[in-house]
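Hmm, how's this folded?
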Amino acid sequence: MIIYIHGFGGSGEGVKAKITREYFKDHTVLTPSLSYVPELAISTLINLIETIEMHEPVYLIGSSLGGYYALFLSQQFNIKAVLLNPSIYPYETLGKLTGYAPNFYDQSQFEWTDVHIEMLHQYEVKTIKTPSNILLMLQTGDELLDYRHAVDKLPDVQQIIEEGGSHSFEGFESRLLRIADFFESR
């Protein structure tokens, strides 16, 4: 089973979530719309993984903040994860966004506070125990996050770095075969 983890202010109905469900239509793909509260988002994902992994392997795809969560969960559960333009230090980058923030799917708003930012610290991965479980996919044109932070933080993982692109990871659909190959590899 594949779990797609959306980014900050995102939704399980976002563009990459839909593309993932369509491409992997012969597999079970979950694209949950997660709480903006980090502890609730992580607890939801932990509950899903613990339930599913009793019956079948679990693979993660995380974008932006979802990449941060996927890295944490990959290390906690020793499972494979693909990180798309991941937020490596979200407590810094999202620290600038306190106040009311939009949900990009339905344009509702939520209040993002210092308490939420502090929650993010507890999910930081200091040491990568199994680098072979991580595929890092970056585009240098990411206008929100400096791709070099991920390169520096994760030097021993498989890395695909593309010139140009954007934070939304342009051409994502053409990278799904590579993602499927990574999940199937030993």
Notes: The two ends are 16 Å apart (CA to CA). The chain has a mean pLDDT of 95. Helices lie at 15-23, 38-52, 65-77, 90-93, 114-121, 147-153, 176-184.
